[in-house]
């Protein structure tokens, strides 16, 4: 039975005619096994081609047949060296795949400068076969645009996953380091297949225990499993660890004892894990300890940890997710605190900033920190787990959300200064670059809580590799690999995925509304909820609806958050007429009877968006109904059942929000409005 465990690495037999064609180009496999990475590459190709083509290529030391596949590096394979290929642009992790002639035979070569590069090429080759692309005249080369492509696990050592909707943590700390669950290998395969090269194994909110020697042994065992796949481990470091596990009285980053403690800790880690990636830190954020507790800055804090890992080549990913109820506008605080520190961080520090200025909402403008700190490497944090987007059951493909922020233009160096160019380092000349995704992975058989949530893990990895890829093209790849190449399935399902994010925006938070979710759990509507003690945790703080209108005034007459953007971006955001309507209520407090571009009042248009969201989910259900029979019944049924939940809850969102906002506006519903059934 299908349970989704294989993810997109689902090497089921292709159609016979298609397999027959591919078999001619997969007659023989010439690949070394001198290193662990070569061995896993060989295993993957045998498994993948054997499954897809129902015929396993024979292993050979040299090319003796037409249609051989030759895999390796110029240093590992004399045959490859002999080809004199230009591998300069491939870096350490890139690859090329080419149709060439070796010893008189037509052959496909898959080449990297390193074993890991060749592994990435092998996965790309399998992807071509799996998605039914021609492979007879190949001339491909590709290399990652970002250096660090990292999953952030919000996993606690007790197995709980914060904002996890797919079961418990996959790390079995109790049995580690002695028992290495085979699932860790499958996790590494899945990540390597999309180019992810790092994993932060514990939550940014977790305690310091993971830094004790007992736990470091366990982390080292994971690192051993991941290493052949080109994946490094990182640890979320609690800032007060020197006190909690080090027995010191302070964690002041400028205290020499504290600095010595972090250096010794780093030395200890690197002895166990020579390729340890470094630390991720959440400091002075949501009650976590940090340098400000000692009157120091984020730079002081980050630099102390950075100095500890620098001799070993490690990095520090320091988060900028800070806000407090004393700030007039939560959206402004990260910029206020961090921008003045530009130029004060060590060279091995990256600032890790969420895509938007508030918190992973269905839609936000890009964070104004992107482009604002040219002297500092800026990495982006995206949330793959759908904390604010319906958890596991709602079908929401996040590709368009990710693509929207990456393609946003910061205008910091004129037109074309996209967020993608900030984070790939090309805009301000950085080579230390990265992207992090908060993982949606747990012990569920299907890893991600639903089959379609796997697509969000997939699209994150692909965009971290190349942030200019199209989310539609990625969705199509994923559908073909995960379900089927049948065109009658692929096109409608990709269309459904592509529209799903806007549907969620419409039934949850249209027109720039945000954070209307129930406080705490963030599931379902609660725009009225005032139960939280902190003002900035209450939905009313964000929508500001009153008798006269609705929306957060972030213009120059309001919080002036607009002026954190470059002037050519700030000007339109400051002007209600020029602000894109999809962000209207993010930046403006607008009268209920404001005329929208459609000619309708804001109030009517708001109602129309909520209704549109519900209608879109109905259409998604209809699309899926027509897909019955194209795939296995197990996955078909679960998606169908989840879509039914989504429709019910889209309706809940619409009815609750309209009823609440109507109670504030006092306005009648539009003529012909269909009340809740
Ligand atoms: O929005 C909040 C989440 C928290 C999370 C925090 C963060 C890890 O609700 O669960 O904590 O963001 O990103 O630090």
Automatic annotation (TrEMBL):
One of its GO terms (biological process) is glucuronoxylan catabolic process. InterPro entries: A-glucoronidase_C_sf (IPR037054), GH (IPR017853), Glyco_hydro_67_aGlcAse (IPR011395), Glyco_hydro_67_aGlcAse_N (IPR005154), Glyco_hydro_67_C (IPR011099), Glyco_hydro_67_cat (IPR011100), Hex-like_dom2 (IPR029018). It holds the Pfam family Glyco_hydro_67N. Keywords: Carbohydrate metabolism, Glycosidase, Hydrolase, Polysaccharide degradation, Xylan degradation. Its EC number is 3.2.1.131. Coiled coil: none annotated. GO terms for cellular component: extracellular region. The active site is at 286 (proton donor), 359 (proton acceptor), 387 (proton acceptor). GO terms for molecular function: alpha-glucuronidase activity; xylan alpha-1,2-glucuronosidase activity. Residues 7-125 form the Alpha glucuronidase N-terminal domain. It catalyses: Hydrolysis of (1->2)-alpha-D-(4-O-methyl)glucuronosyl links in the main chain of hardwood xylans. It is an enzyme of class 3 (hydrolase). Homodimer. Belongs to the glycosyl hydrolase 67 family. This is Xylan alpha-1,2-glucuronidase. It comes from Dyella psychrodurans.
């Amino acid at each position: 039975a299908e349970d989704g465990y294989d993810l997109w690495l689902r090497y089921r037999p292709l159609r016979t005619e298609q397999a027959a064609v591919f078999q001619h180009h997969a007659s023989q496999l010439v690949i070394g096994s001198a290193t662990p990475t070569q061995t896993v590459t060989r295993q993957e190709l045998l498994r993948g081609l054997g499954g897809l083509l129902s015929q396993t290529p024979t292993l050979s030391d040299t090319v003796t047949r037409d249609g051989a596949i030759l895999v390796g590096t110029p240093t590992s394979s004399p045959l490859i060296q002999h080809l004199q290929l230009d591998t300069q642009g491939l870096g350490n992790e890139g690859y090329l795949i080419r149709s060439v002639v070796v010893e008189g035979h037509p052959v496909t070569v898959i080449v990297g400068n390193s074993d890991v590069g060749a592994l990435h090429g092998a996965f790309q080759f399998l992807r071509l076969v799996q998605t039914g692309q021609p492979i007879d005249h190949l001339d491909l080369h590709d290399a990652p645009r970002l250096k660090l492509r990292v999953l952030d696990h919000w996993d606690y050592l007790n197995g709980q996953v914060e904002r996890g909707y797919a079961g418990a943590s996959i790390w079995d700390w109790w049995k580690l380091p002695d028992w290495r669950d085979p699932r860790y290998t499958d996790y590494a395969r899945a990540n390597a297949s999309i180019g992810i090269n790092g994993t932060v194994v514990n939550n940014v909110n977790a305690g310091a225990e993971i830094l004790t020697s007992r736990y470091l042994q366990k982390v080292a065992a994971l690192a051993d499993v991941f290493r052949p796949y080109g994946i490094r481990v990182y640890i979320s470091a609690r800032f007060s660890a020197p006190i909690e596990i080090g027995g010191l009285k302070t964690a002041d980053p400028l205290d020499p004892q504290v600095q010595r403690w972090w250096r010794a800790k780093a030395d200890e880690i690197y002895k166990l894990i020579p390729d340890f990636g470094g630390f991720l830190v959440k400091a002075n954020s949501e009650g976590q300890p940090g340098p400000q507790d000692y009157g120091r800055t984020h730079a002081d804090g980050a630099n102390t940890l950075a100095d500890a890992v620098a001799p070993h080549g490690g990095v520090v990913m320091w988060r900028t997710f800070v806000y407090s109820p004393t700030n007039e506008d939560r959206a402004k605080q990260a910029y206020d605190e961090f921008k003045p520190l530009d130029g004060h961080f060590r060279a091995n520090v990256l600032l890790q900033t969420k895509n938007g200025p508030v918190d992973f909402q269905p839609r936000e403008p890009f964070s104004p920190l992107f482009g604002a700190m040219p002297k500092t490497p800026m990495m982006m944090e995206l949330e793959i787990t759908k904390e604010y987007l319906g958890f596991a059951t709602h079908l929401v493909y996040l590709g368009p959300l990710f693509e929207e922020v990456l393609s946003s233009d910061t205008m910091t160096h004129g037109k074309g200064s996209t967020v993608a160019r900030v984070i790939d380092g090309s805009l301000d000349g950085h080579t230390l670059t990265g992207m992090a995704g908060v993982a949606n992975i747990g012990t569920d058989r299907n890893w991600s809580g639903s089959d379609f949530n796997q697509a969000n893990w997939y699209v994150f990895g692909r965009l971290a590799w190349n942030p200019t890829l199209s989310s539609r093209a990625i969705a199509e790849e994923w559908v073909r690999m995960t379900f089927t190449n049948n065109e009658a399935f692929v096109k409608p399902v990709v269309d459904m995925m592509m529209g799903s994010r806007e549907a969620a925006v419409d039934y949850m938070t249209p027109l720039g509304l945000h954070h209307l979710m129930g406080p705490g759990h963030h599931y379902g509507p609660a725009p009225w909820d005032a139960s939280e003690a902190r003002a900035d945790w209450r939905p009313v703080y964000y929508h500001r609806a009153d008798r006269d209108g609705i929306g957060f005034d972030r213009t120059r007459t309001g919080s002036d958050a607009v002026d954190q953007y470059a002037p050519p971006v700030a000007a339109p955001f400051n002007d209600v007429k020029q602000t894109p309507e999809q962000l209207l209520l993010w930046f403006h407090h607008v009268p209920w009877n404001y005329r929208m571009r459609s000619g309708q009042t804001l109030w009517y248009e708001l109602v129309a968006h909520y209704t549109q969201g519900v209608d879109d989910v109905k259409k998604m259900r209809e699309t899926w109904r027509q897909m019955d029979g194209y795939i296995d019944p197990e996955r078909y049924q679960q998606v169908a059942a989840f879509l039914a939940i989504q429709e019910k809850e889209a309706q809940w969102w619409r009815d609750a929000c309209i009823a609440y906002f109507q109670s504030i506006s006092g306005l009648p519903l539009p003529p012909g409005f269909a009340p809740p059934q």
